[in-house]
Amino acid sequence: MKGITPAEPAEAGIHPHAGSEPGERLDDAAVAYQEPAAFFRAAARLRHGPPVWIA
Predict the structure, then answer these.
(1) Where are the alpha helices (DSSP H) in the chain?
(2) Which residues lie closer than 8 Å to 18 by C-beta, 6 or more apart?
(3) Contact criterion met (CB below 8 Å) for 10 and 18
(4) Residues sharing a CB contact under 8 Å with residue 4, sequence separation 6 or more, in sequence order
(5) 16, 18, 45, 47 — which has fewest CB within 10 A?
(6) What are the φ/ψ torsions at residue 20 (nearest 5 degrees)?
């Protein structure tokens, strides 16, 4: 986006990770997806996995 610095979304409370280290963001994402990942692993084991599109 033009005219927006990386710090502005964090200051506005829109994106809490602006300005953080890339590894920290990956750790946060991994924690957020632990429960859905377990669900999809179980569904796949039972051959009941739904199609998922993440954009």
Answers:
(1) 7-11, 22-32, 34-45
(2) 6, 7, 8, 9, 10
(3) yes
(4) none
(5) 47
(6) -80, 170
Q: Residue 18 has what pLDDT?
A: 46
CA distance 7 to 9: 6
User: 32 near 21, Cβ under 8 Å?
Assistant: no
Place of tokens 């994402």: 29
Residue 6 three-state SS: coil
- The four Cα atoms 27, 13, 1, 20 give a dihedral, to 10 degrees, of -30
pLDDT in tens, the chain (55 residues): 577 877 787 777 776 554 556 566 777 778 888 998 898 889 889 988 777 777 6
